[in-house]
Amino acid sequence: VYSNEEMDALLSTCAEFGAKVIIDTSFSGLEYSSTTWDLNKALARLDSSLSVSLLGCLSLTMLSGALKLGFLVLDQSLVDAFNTLPGLSKPHSTVKYAAKKMLALKEEKNSDFLDAVSVTIKTLEGRSKRLKEVLEKSGWEVIEPSGGISMVAKPKAYLNKRVKVKAGEGEEVELTDSKMRDVFLSHTGVCLNSGSWTGIPGYCRFTFALEDSEFDKAIESIAQFKSVLA
């Protein structure tokens, strides 16, 4: 989670070098603490020529179930370019209606809505701590998240070790970053994103936005993965 000072530094650097900025706020609102940043104040202190676009998502913070709606707030200089993109679709009127109703509940600070969001955040924070504990006990190096539905960790105890490709089978491989996903899936049934997906060499991504029973099952499987070193 970025602080106001960090956002100021990042945006000032972009303005200095004339970079176009795209900010992804898909997980904003799912922070485990109240730390937030104020984009309006940060932009007000910069040159108005800085191009800033904003990506967002209503599905996560709005607890909207099957309704999945992302949005993009564009700098005016990019609007025409995006309007001409082939395949660009617009949400159905019923989806827009539902999104407006949920946004209204948020703006009105509806108690039922805010309570539901608060419960979800507490659940995600608890899962984050539980997953971190299991991974660290199993030889992973964890980067603890400050919010959201995922965690990044490095399989420090496993990299470059020879392990069986599948449980109970004789074939062995050296466990490299590129092989981590497939080997982990074959042993645990849990799918993670490897370093080639995260863009952080050696670090994998776990997502814990699951039903309670599925999360509990995944935690047990992850804890048993250390048996591959035996």
Q: What would you say this structure looks like, in words?
A:
This protein is an alpha+beta fold. The chain has 2 domains: 105 residues, Aspartate Aminotransferase, domain 2 (3-Layer(aba) Sandwich); 104 residues, Aspartate Aminotransferase, domain 1. 42% of the residues lie in helices and 14% in strands. The chain has 8 helices and 8 strands. The protein has a 3-stranded mixed β-sheet with strand order 1-2-3, with no helix packed on it. Strands 4-5-8 form a 3-stranded antiparallel β-sheet. A hairpin with a 6-residue loop joins strand 4 and strand 5. Helix 5 packs parallel to helix 8. It is globular, with a radius of gyration of 21 Å. The model has no long low-confidence stretch (mean pLDDT 83).
Rounded to an integer, what's the Rg over CA atoms?
Answer: 21 Å
What would CATH call the architecture of the largest domain?
Answer: 3-Layer(aba) Sandwich
Kindly identify the CATH topology of the largest domain. Answer: Aspartate Aminotransferase, domain 2
Count of individual helical segments: 8
Q: Strands of the largest sheet, in order across it? A: 1-2-3
Query: What is the H/E string?
Result: HEHEEHHHEEEEHHEH
CATH class of the largest domain: Alpha Beta
Strand content: 5-15%
Specify the helix fraction band: 40-55%
Task: State the shape.
Answer: globular
